[in-house]
Amino acid sequence: MKQRIFIILLAIMMAGKTDSQNTVGLISKNQGATEGFTFVYPINQANGYLVDGCGALVNAWLDDPTFMAGAAAYLTPQGQLLKTKRKINFAQDKIFAPGAGGIVELRTWDNNLLWQYELNNEQFRLHHDIKLMPNNHILMLVWEEKSKEECVAAGRNPGFISDGKIYNEKIIEVDPSTSEIVWEWSVWDHLIQDFDSTKVNYGNVAAHPERIDINLNTAGSFGLPNADWMHINSFDYHPMLDQILISAPIFNEIMIIDHSTTTQQAKGSVGGLGKKGGDLLFRWGNPANYRQGTAADQKLFFQHDTKWLIYDIPQNHPDFGKISLFNNRVTATTSWGAILNPPWDMYQWSYTQTGTTYGPVDFERKIIHPNPVKQNSPITSVVQLLPNNHIFSAAGNKGYCYELDANGELLWEYILPYRGFGPVTQGSLLIPNDNPVFSFKRFSPDFSGFSDKDMSAKGWIELNPDSTFCDRITATASPFDVISPYPNPTSDQIQWTNLVSGGQVYLYDVNGIMVKTTAAKGEKQSFMVSDLPTGLYCLMRGDLKSWVMVQKN
Predict the structure, then answer these.
(1) Are 316 and 310 in contact (CB under 8 A)?
(2) pTM
(3) Cα–Cα distance for residue pair 356/341, rounded to 1 Å
(4) Total Cβ atoms within 10 A of residue 353
(5) Which residues make Cβ contacts (< 8 Å) with residue 118, sequence separation at least 6?
(6) Which end of the chain is less crowded, N or C, counting CB atoms within 10 A of the terminal residue's CB?
(7) What is the CATH number of the domain that holds 506?
(8) Is the peptide bond before 378 cis (omega within 30 degrees of 0)?
């Protein structure tokens, strides 16, 4: 009879360690962890936080509690906070879907308001992401409501307009010195369809991958309103190419457009460095969207945090110019980060195609947590490549961020100590969506925005904090780090990772009889458990214990 092994991740600390494990804030920190500061912008309120490597609070940008994130926020090279927000009560808002914003603010390190821009009316609403450009202009995402009549005029099948409207997507560039829109691009100018031959955009979808099929997403997806047609959730700007990278998660696809156009050129198909006006220069992740593939060819699954690897690593880094993203819904229980290398030809100033589709064939590499259950998040989430080739990443719906070294070993973990709209006490047990976060980012101590700031610890976000925890675990973690078994579930073995060698790892049954043992090595190890009867077992190293359930069908 086939066996299945279910790992119950209790990680119960026994004996003298019963009070030594945090449940929120800093969870673990090993000697190889990269020094730096982590910026956190939770979803359920509009406060920004900066914490140090021990999870202590370095700075906080607190907002009126009647506001929440709208959704992104960033620290600028000057140490200012650029953030989105919206009113918690949206009953009077004409346009609304998850990720809705409406307000963009620039604030000083001391949280003084420098500038504010608002767009939330009958026809337009800011949402999700923003991007600061080198010229200090700000790119913003905008929903534009299109009526059923406008959708039909654009060739949308009337049966696909169940909400009686569609939220078209636009990108605007705003000059903060004047608050004027100086450039914009609209999806509505770059549509194609083969449903209604009487419309001007009627054509062969497969022959025009540079245009977007207006009849994609026929009935809404992922629990979002049907009107939220694309749900662009992140974008990025490449100043050297003057291009914008877009994540359209409902389409399970990323796209690139040309920003070197004028606004007038961006409405058409001629002009700009790419010579295609505002048409797509590149798209990847789901070639079925332009009739050049099937479900088997799909690579992206409701992805987030799509960005170019140009800001956190030097130009001579082998990954410079590639794209990173978080692939949220690979399966119902599987998420991971990834890096891909778009086929850019600088001499032709275009992205090359392989046959009838855009390459690459697959990701260059996937970024997988040693315990994949912790990494799984169906929403938000982050992947950041650090200069030392470590990965900083986050599972957004868990408020959980972590650092992996170049070999995928876990070095540092932090859980936002929030439930809903307020902080929780150390020792609280949180579940997914208690503390969702849209923006996490790791900063080096030499980040320019910190140069003249007080970077000392100033307390904690969590209530009743354990102020000695960081010192204890960094002093003792190397010989006796907690041995957390994974994956969950597994069919044949229990795996864990030791930071260093020395001592033994034991597996005891519920009666206290040792059934397996091995010398602890500074690497991943495993016990085969297919030969064990159903029951509760204890994996033990030193005075640390984790309970494991072995279960047969």
Answers:
(1) no
(2) 0.84
(3) 18
(4) 13
(5) 102, 103, 104, 126
(6) N
(7) 2.60.40.10
(8) no
Name the residue range of residue 498's domain.
482-552
User: Which of 218, 421, 438 minimizes the C-alpha distance to 328?
Assistant: 438
3 within some domain = no
Neighbouring-strand partners of residue 242: none
Contact 127, 143 (CB under 8 A): yes
Q: In sequence order, which ranges of 376-503 are alpha helices (DSSP H)? A: 469-476
Say which residue, 248 or 498, is predicted with more confidence.
Answer: 248
Burial class (CB within 10 angstroms; exposed 0-12, middle 13-18, buried 19+) of 334:
middle
Q: Which amino acid is at 102?
A: G
Domain count for the chain: 1
CA distance 122 to 207: 36
Q: Please report whether residue 444 resides in a domain.
A: no
Is 449 in a helix, a strand, or coil? helix
C-alpha 520/C-alpha 480 separation (Å) is 10
Residue listed under structure tokens 């973990």? 413
Q: What are phi and psi of 448, to 5 degrees?
A: -60, -30
At 271-287, the pLDDT tens digits run: 999 999 999 999 999 99
* Beta-strand pair 350-351/344-345: antiparallel
Give the residues across from 486 on adjacent strands: 495
Checking DSSP bridges between strand 282-284 and strand 253-258, what pairing results, if any? antiparallel
DSSP string for residues in 506-545: EEEETTS-EEEEEE--SSEEEEE-TTSPSEEEEEEETTEE
The pair of three-digit structure tokens given for residue 549, joined into one six-digit string: 């359930």
* In a domain? residue 181: no
- Expressed in percent and rounded to 5, the helix, strand and coil fractions of the chain are 10, 40, 50
Cis preceding linkage at 465, omega within 30: no
CA 424/CA 42 separation, integer angstroms: 14
Give the span between the Cα atoms of 202 and 184, in whole angstroms.
24
pLDDT single digits (tens) 116-173: 999 999 999 999 999 999 999 999 999 999 999 999 999 999 999 999 999 999 999 9
Q: List pLDDT tens digits, range 58-104.
A: 999 999 999 999 999 999 999 999 999 999 999 999 999 999 999 99
Residue 365 lies in a domain: no
Q: Which two tokens stand for residue 13?
A: 């600390």
User: Six-digit token pair at 373?
Assistant: 């259950």
Cis amide bond preceding 487, omega within 30: yes
b/e burial code for range 236-254 (CB count within 10 A of at least 16 → b): bbbeebebbbbbbbbbbbb
The one-character DSSP state at 159 is: G
Q: Under 8 Å CB-to-CB from 283, ≥6 apart: which residues?
A: 209, 253, 254, 255, 256, 289, 290, 358
Q: Which position has the token pair 């309120």?
A: 45
Closest CA to 9 of 525, 420, 276, 373: 373
User: DSSP label at 428?
Assistant: P
DSSP assignment of 244-257 equals EEEEEGGGTEEEEE
Tokens of 167: 């939220």
**Would you state the structure tokens that stand for residue 175, as one six-digit string?**
């000059």
CB count in 10 Å sphere of residue 71? 28
